[in-house]
Amino acid sequence: MRIPYGGDYNPEQWPEEVWKQDHRLFDAARIDTVTVGVFTWARTQPSADEYDFTTLDRIVERVAAEGRRICLATGTGALPPWLAKAHPEVNRTDFEGRRHRYGQRHNACPSSPVFRQLSTEMARQVARRYAGNPAIIAWHVGNEYGGACYCDLCAAAFRDWLGARYSTLERLNAAWNTTFWSHTFTGWDEIEPPSALTEHWRGPDHTAFQGITLDYLRFMSDAMLANFRDEKAAIREADPTTPVTTNFMGMYRPIDYHRWAAHLDFASWDNYPPDDTSQARMAFTHDLMRGLKDGQPFWLMEQTPSYTASRDVNPLKRPGLMRLWSWQAVAHGADAVLFFQLRASRGACEKYHGAVVGHAGRSDTRVFREVAELGAELEKLGGVTLGARTPAKVAVLFDWDSWWALEISDGPSRLVRYQQVVLAYHRALWDAGADIDVVPVDADLSRYDVVFAPALHMVKGDLAERLEEVAGRGGSVVTTFLSGRVDEDDNAFLTDVPGPLGPLMGIRVDEWDARGPEFVNPVRLDNGPVVDARLLFELVIPQGADVLGTYEADFYTGTPAVTRNAFGQGYGWYVAAGLDEVGVGWVVRQVLDRHNLGGPYPDVPD
Amino acid sequence: MRIPYGGDYNPEQWPEEVWKQDHRLFDAARIDTVTVGVFTWARTQPSADEYDFTTLDRIVERVAAEGRRICLATGTGALPPWLAKAHPEVNRTDFEGRRHRYGQRHNACPSSPVFRQLSTEMARQVARRYAGNPAIIAWHVGNEYGGACYCDLCAAAFRDWLGARYSTLERLNAAWNTTFWSHTFTGWDEIEPPSALTEHWRGPDHTAFQGITLDYLRFMSDAMLANFRDEKAAIREADPTTPVTTNFMGMYRPIDYHRWAAHLDFASWDNYPPDDTSQARMAFTHDLMRGLKDGQPFWLMEQTPSYTASRDVNPLKRPGLMRLWSWQAVAHGADAVLFFQLRASRGACEKYHGAVVGHAGRSDTRVFREVAELGAELEKLGGVTLGARTPAKVAVLFDWDSWWALEISDGPSRLVRYQQVVLAYHRALWDAGADIDVVPVDADLSRYDVVFAPALHMVKGDLAERLEEVAGRGGSVVTTFLSGRVDEDDNAFLTDVPGPLGPLMGIRVDEWDARGPEFVNPVRLDNGPVVDARLLFELVIPQGADVLGTYEADFYTGTPAVTRNAFGQGYGWYVAAGLDEVGVGWVVRQVLDRHNLGGPYPDVPD
Amino acid sequence: MRIPYGGDYNPEQWPEEVWKQDHRLFDAARIDTVTVGVFTWARTQPSADEYDFTTLDRIVERVAAEGRRICLATGTGALPPWLAKAHPEVNRTDFEGRRHRYGQRHNACPSSPVFRQLSTEMARQVARRYAGNPAIIAWHVGNEYGGACYCDLCAAAFRDWLGARYSTLERLNAAWNTTFWSHTFTGWDEIEPPSALTEHWRGPDHTAFQGITLDYLRFMSDAMLANFRDEKAAIREADPTTPVTTNFMGMYRPIDYHRWAAHLDFASWDNYPPDDTSQARMAFTHDLMRGLKDGQPFWLMEQTPSYTASRDVNPLKRPGLMRLWSWQAVAHGADAVLFFQLRASRGACEKYHGAVVGHAGRSDTRVFREVAELGAELEKLGGVTLGARTPAKVAVLFDWDSWWALEISDGPSRLVRYQQVVLAYHRALWDAGADIDVVPVDADLSRYDVVFAPALHMVKGDLAERLEEVAGRGGSVVTTFLSGRVDEDDNAFLTDVPGPLGPLMGIRVDEWDARGPEFVNPVRLDNGPVVDARLLFELVIPQGADVLGTYEADFYTGTPAVTRNAFGQGYGWYVAAGLDEVGVGWVVRQVLDRHNLGGPYPDVPD
Ligand SMILES: [Zn+2]
Ligand SMILES: [Zn+2]
Ligand SMILES: [Zn+2]
């Protein structure tokens, strides 16, 4: 057993003589695993009443005969044209209220009974046919779930979802604070999906009612999860054991992967970093993916060997970078290294997307050589890293609800972005060489000495108590501006800011100042540097906390920007402003040093 | 009697124990006036057949019992959900042609018979119930009227409005110059609202037929005025005397407040300046609001004590600024100083909008302290400023028709913006310390020594004669580039530019040059500085006027940029290009000096 | 016979006393030709059953009586309102799927049977009535054909067009590579127009299936061509000889003028350059227009004497520029010099568009004087240039298919724009003083010594062989990055890049690097300068070619950026990166020098 190495393989696009060449090239590159069938629905079900596995049979047989392993897709990642024509309601209605017609992928309404029935049946047919084939090492359901639908079927499903959540309209009206702007709902059918035609202005982040939009985000994530679960259940009818996954997309805002994770047997994700200098970002995403299932390894399901095609500008991965990033994935917990795609398609929107084998079918290219070299290295490594876990003492909390709530909020600042705040702290930890877990807010925190909770806008359940427990037993908890603002319904806490985090932080915030990116307020750190702060500046009134950094400008000069509060045996840290990289680094080092959690190789250049 | 001080108060969002705390805090802050009921429709009419004033009764009773004064809203600022569901046609159809569903506020079609009937009945019910309550000092109809609808009901109402305006299609075709591009209408029902689906491209300012778009702007302003008048009439059935108002939004393009003003008993407006350096702009807007009803005082109906929430970046008002700006309002004619809002709402899009009392309910915050200090100052002032008028000798003309016509015009330049031109001249007058009235083009000009008419694109009725009369008796009239171009139908005058202003200005303009903002043509002023001019450069051929400034660059070097024409006992000034602040200031000082109208404290720093 | 001089004339907008003034002014300006009737449909057919030529008769009679020549329009450039109301399906459905209502111009669905029938009948009526009038020297069909429709009628017509092109769904599925993303079509009616509701994202250039979008572009160009041909055939029923044209718009992407050209008796175009420094661009466009009909002269159908109105900023043409550019047109092959417009319209979106006669009707303006001076010059010239041809030895290929394919492609770079690449090479040739033909890819290349094929993304038919023939007999062929990538269906060639151009170029390209505009890779030219390269960098592996330029930066430092391959008696040149003006100039001079094709006056300042 070795790390699965290979990637997406679509031989149905080619005549069979090409398949022969493919396998010769796979051998040369030590490719032992292929993902097949991702977009085969139109072929495997050419009409409503007909399933036809002729081609898929031949592909699977040939791959197995060549000794390769298979990650077999259910093939429901894109609708076939006949289905969209026969049942127009399976096509999505977009945020602008426009019912789409056939095209693209990610194109099905998740609430459509026809789509749910036919996609489930497709998974059932595939599983029934290929279950037991020893080449199959994983099932791949759908593909990169995402997007959103605003159709009447989804509206009805949303109302059901709300009924289950709130039971009564009284509770719903309270949760959404509908008295504001005369929105009191007196019938469930008065509720509409929040869209450009209803509560929104300017776009998906600008809503009159944050509570409605937040619940729709949760609902839509759940609706697509139901699609995944439908298919998984159908697979399980025929195959009770082979692991089932779907490919995630890292920090992908529309889907709360934490709510999905329990339903996957292992996580997997597609890594398309925006540019050559994304190492820190990728490190974070790998940690996030590893944190989905409590530290369990994940698969790197897709990466390009060379370039993407969908961006305005698609730069080439520099020589050596693909290898470096593949090993980074393994080091962070990846148990598979797979490419999209093994052979470049001839036409349509990915014909210029990088591939292991290009249009000319050559093996004497730089890209193929690098792929083959990595294949040889992984073969040599064998299975030694498979299943390995690396539990850490430092946790970073990541929370889709806080992400959504912060970014759909009107005020204080649209410029404060959740990912940027979290990434800044993770990056500083990474630079310090610390081992880090990225975990959901309901994770078991008892194993951590240090917990970072950047921009933890929403505080749910007993989280505040559990954070207090960390500090109480001698740990350190760090949070920032715009944390502790709202409850699970996105209603403000009726207490001083930072709400339930106040006792742990030992501070109170009455007001705050948002400014454009051109404005800098320097922050003088205690026995440390003077650093820049930007975008948001909370005015902190200590309620017991010590001041470790102060603003140097504006009418609040000299007031606290960074505080530390002794709590039990430990501390609560509060960073009230958007510090620059040096500032965040200083805070992080202070905290790590106390616990001796800096890594052995800090400050290695990227 | 003292200046009403307080603001928007929405206790229906809170349990009654909070109300008690509210009033204690209002006492501490010398708050004596509250606006209640703005968004209560869903509560006061929970279904088609049911009115329920239980909550509003308790609020009004409590406020009155506490000795406070009430500005009572009719509550029609946002539809209740049941109404939108039962009568989908009450929801607006937007510029893109999309019929909306329930959401937001400002969401009713002004032409919908159901909306008109039910909103009027709501006002009638409220007035009937509370008329005679001595605490009520004003009625507040609707809220921040605005937006536009493009539905079929509005199309039909537009055709009726056109029928009343033009009587025959012949006259309509002539007014719209429909022979151009084969647009001759042969039936009233062929006329469509000008939208993204009909005459427009790129957006609301880009139209193929300026005349159609201009008339639709007028119609829509009138349609919403009819909504206001419906409600006012219903109030008057029960209460013949208490003044009725609605809150305006300053320089708000969609509504011609000059056409509305006669129907309000007093004007009021909501002041949300874009940033900390808006003093000059606010001075202008206060003057505009005071000019709506011939110098009669107005109310400052809303301002934030600290920050807004709806902007991308919502900075904090610096300490002292709220006080300074409140006094500025009083000095410019405000007879009330009110905040939005007294207590911050818990949820939805204004939960981070500033409030006198925040989520924690504290009175020991900086913001509350400043509010209380201003309350004490206003209490000490008493009623001494109430009803005061400050007639001026300098008028600035402001004209919605010119604003619309200029900004929907194709050519010469989309970069010339009406507000910027008018503000530049008002600001120079303000810097010079002059007392200024901002008045409509049909105002009585006989009281003014100096009249500024910047960017007076449209010249209607006998305006040219009345301006000539000002100059004839020794006054000064100043106008600028892009003035005197079109008649009331937006058809070009078939004379030399500047049309009917030509004789007074003593010039003729055959051509003009529009340039990007990066291009500067220096203008040498007579015995004055060389200043920058930008965006638009008219080429002036004097027909009797003296040249007081000349271009210094391009092929028209040495030709006139500023002229002054002796006319009767006075002068007509023409500024042919977009001068910078120094240049506009120089012109303004020349004019004021002749009339000794500079103020006693010119050039005070902002 | 002299060069027709005059322009668009719309006297139907004015009372007849103005016509008298018009003709006096035309005489003064030596205007001898007018285009009439372009937007007269509403007047000539005021209702479904009625044609009324009263006004047009008087206009034509008067113009003829004054001794002027007429370019007579069929008048179908904009629908009349009654037609749009009676047959809503004649209004276009836009890319967003919105059926429009009446408004604008360019507003008819080209597939609508009603529009086709009525517009053809309109042309028939006009031709029948005025054929034989000796004043008429040309027929002007429609006006500036363009735009696109996505309605169900167009969908049906598209399917018919596809049926004619592909015969079977098997061939269509292969051409579009539908196996990718499960798009296999099993019924013709499953095919939808590619729009924002189907295959597109972000806009018209971002499509999931390039093949579908490419075919729709071809179809829509053909559909409007059918409209033109309908009208032309109706004219020919009454008038077998007078030439028929329509006014093109230069490099206008939506219409493949090469496919239209055979159906026009002569080409004509409207020249509205973006700014004062467009000489090189206009030179190219004139050459393109002259190349449409194999070098035959064309008409300059429209230009403004002063300014446009539709741009954000509409600068004034400097004195002398209108004259200079008119002579440039004549030198490049124009056989007519016409303005839009002779008299400025009073209202609507072109009231500020420049005109020979302005609103005041003056002849003592600078613009009128310049028009009259040019009129006198052209009168003096007489007919000496009419029909002149200037065959060149240098060809630049221009190809709408390559333009479309390149710009709808996902990857490598959205920043590489076809026009910019082609213009860069043409400009360098123009700077070198060469005579240039701009020709379609199916032109006879046997007459050229040098052929430039910049960004020739698509290589169709026997083009590669014909280019090889040019080099084989001693000529030079130059192509660039992103050439030779796809076949006629937009499917990648299954060979090394640059596909069928590989043997001629003697190179192979395995990979490429796209970068933002801020990144520069210097290219060292052989015995030449070091120049900047930007945006796209192909990595070239010579297969026999000589290296004439190398990259100076990045991991591919020292590898080829410019190559020259000896082929037969001549050469194939390949420029692998986006060189700057100096770099392109160097390549062009190297090539021209070999053939002694530089002009006598190179490097004249613009
Ligand atoms: Zn749906
Ligand atoms: Zn309406
Ligand atoms: Zn159509």
From TrEMBL, chains A, B, C:
Binding-site list for substrate: 105, 143
A family per Pfam: Glyco_hydro_42
Superkingdom per UniProt: Bacteria
Transmembrane feature ranges: none
E.C. no: 3.2.1.23
Any one Gene Ontology BP term: galactose metabolic process
GO cellular component terms attached to this protein's record: beta-galactosidase complex
Active site residues of this protein: 144, 302
CDD domains tied to this protein: A4_beta-galactosidase_middle_domain
UniProt entry tagged with the keyword Zinc: yes
UniProt cross-references to SUPFAM superfamilies, sorted A to Z: (Trans)glycosidases, Class I glutamine amidotransferase-like
Binding site for Zn(2+): 109, 149, 151, 154
Record's keyword terms, sorted: Glycosidase, Hydrolase, Metal-binding, Zinc
Domain Glycoside hydrolase family 42 N-terminal: 8-381
Residue span, Beta-galactosidase trimerisation domain: 392-597
InterPro entries reported for this sequence: Beta_galactosidase_C (IPR013739), Beta_galactosidase_Trimer (IPR013738), Class_I_gatase-like (IPR029062), GH (IPR017853), Glyco_hydro_42 (IPR003476), Glyco_hydro_42_N (IPR013529), Glyco_hydro_b (IPR013780)
Enzyme class: hydrolase
GO MF annotation, one: metal ion binding
Enzymatic reactions: Hydrolysis of terminal non-reducing beta-D-galactose residues in beta-D-galactosides
Family: Belongs to the glycosyl hydrolase 42 family.
UniProt name for this protein: Beta-galactosidase
UniProt lineage: Bacteria, Bacillati, Actinomycetota, Actinomycetes, Micromonosporales
